[in-house]
Amino acid sequence: MPGVTRHRRMAAVLRLVGVFCIVFSLSMLPPLAVSLWYGDGEVRHFLLSLGIIFLTGVTLWAPGRLAPPELRRRDGFLVVALFWTVLSALGALPFILGPHVDFVDALFEAASGFTTTGATVLTGLDTLPRSVLFYRQELQWFGGMGLIVLAVAVLPALGVGGMQLYRAEVPGPMKEDKLTPRLRQTAQALWLIYLGLTAACALGFWFAGMSVFDAVAHSMATLSTGGFSTHDASIGYFHSPAVEAVAIVFMLAGGINFAVHFLALHRRSLHPYWQDVEVRAFLLFVAAAIGVCTLALKAYGFYDFGAALRYAAFEAVSVITSTGFGTADFSAWPAFLPVLLIFVSFVGGCGGSTAGGMKVMRVLVLVYEGLREVRRLVHPRAHMALRLGHRVVDQRVAQNIWGFFAVYIATFAALMLAMMLTGLDQATAFSAVATCMNNLGPGLGEVAYDFAGVPDAAKAIAVFAMLAGRLEVFTLLVLLTPEYWKE
Asked: What is the Cα–Cα distance from 171 to 187, expressed in whole angstroms?
């Protein structure tokens, strides 16, 4: 009965996606409240969006409501892919109904928010309704930790085990690690830490001089390492070293593995941050990038030393954590610096963080594996274990990381060529794919500020690149293989 089994599993998958849509419809309530508070005339649009998303969820949920939840591990990939695709499409509704953005642009904006990319097609942010601005920030905040991880916390109540979804959703190579013995407790711990850090960031911004609205809005984009702002000039709008300092601290917090945050809170000590080999490498990498950028800016006479350090620190942290906030236009910086910053975005933050990129852990394994192969040329018979700190990396994990790296680069090359087919020049196509796959936001060339001027075909490719980057390529590509659909 393979056909019946497949049908039941698909019904269970659509049932779950329907539940997620119903839950997501409730996300229209906060911006609706903001619209009522400020009287910006968007209440009707958010109510209509809520109704459409809710009915869509019920439509997906109803046919499989009585089906047993026969989910296998690989079905988690389909749930996650459908979740992000469907929610990105439905999340575009407030942009279509409110600012009257066309579908491609609205889909781009919603996908950029959900994937915490931060690239935008909207201009004139300072004049947009407050509720629409808040909605953009809210999209990034939910996307930062992953709405599916939130849903995993309540999946037992739905009668479905959540580990399949957790493996497909959580970023980074060590997906089997959990903070607590039970997955539900793990998801709850992640979100409590995320919520607490967001609240602390909002208070920090408020004390630094932001209005309450801007402080809350930017805290959402900072912890999610998303980078949307309520102003066209981004963080540069505030001209405040204090605001920039708060942003740097919490961008770094978003770029660090949340399991390490959990350990630090549990032990009430900062030692876990330095004891963790990935976090230590991440912080050293950030420091090195800041140093190189500062020295180059000073050497080329772009700024004096104080200003060079200030702007280099902010931009380097913003790019490495894939946040994409800006206080300066790094695409106009001298010499190799713009390309260097695009390159470092490929590394990204730590596994288990909200940051994009390939993740520091993977890069460390690639570097150590390469060095081990060099040593083997000298000592071909020696047994050399691959270690990260005191931890021996299983060879299977190393092979998976090499496979991920190969697929990541191949996907990047294919998408870049596709971008060039739409008429973009090489520099723009390269940075557009890099900024979308690494969930960064700002790029070079025509996409240095926004994607408003690129063709619709290029925007559609960018949406795929954002989703592929957020789901770490394999989650989408595995669905394109014939083997996945065989019993």
From this structure: 14
Q: Is residue 291 part of a domain?
A: no
> DSSP class of residue 182?
S
- Residue-level pLDDT at 66: 66
For residue 218, the tally of other CB atoms under 10 A from its CB is 29
Helices and strands per DSSP (H, E), number in the chain: 23, 2
Write the DSSP symbol of residue 225.
T
Supply the range of the domain harboring residue 443: 396-485
Phi, psi of 159 (to 5 degrees): 80, 25
pLDDT at residue 163, as a whole number: 47
d(CA 253, CA 355): 10
Give the burial class of 33: count Cβ atoms within 10 A of its Cβ; 0-12 exposed, 13-18 middle, 19 or more buried. Answer: middle
Distance in angstroms (rounded) separating the CA atoms of residues 465 and 481? 18
Q: In this structure, are strands 387-388 and 391-392 parallel, antiparallel, or unpaired? A: antiparallel
Query: Is 304 domain-assigned?
Result: no
Q: Are the CB atoms for 273 and 348 separated by under 8 Å?
A: no
Residue 413 covered by a domain: yes
Map residue 383 onto helix, strand or coil: coil
Low-confidence ranges of the chain (pLDDT < 70): 1-6, 66-71, 147-184, 487
pLDDT, residue 12, reads 79
Count: domains in the chain: 2
Instruction: Give the tens place of pLDDT for each residue, 234-281.
Output: 999 999 999 999 999 999 999 998 888 888 888 888 888 888 888 999
Residue 388 phi/psi, 5° resolution?
-120, 105
Q: How many CB atoms lie within 10 A of CB 421?
A: 12
Q: How far is 168 from 175, CA to CA, in rounded Å?
A: 8
The last residue of a domain, from among 169, 188, 207: 188
Domain boundary among 147, 166, 188: 188
Picking from 369, 363, 357, 359, the residue whose alpha carbon sits closest to that of residue 396 is 369
Residue 383 · residue 395 · CB < 8 Å: no
Residue 171's pLDDT is 58
- For the chain, the C-alpha Rg in angstroms (whole number) is 22
First to last CA, the chain: 11
3-state secondary structure 409-421: HHHHHHHHHHHHH
Q: Is residue 418 part of a domain?
A: yes
Structure tokens at 322: 């894939």
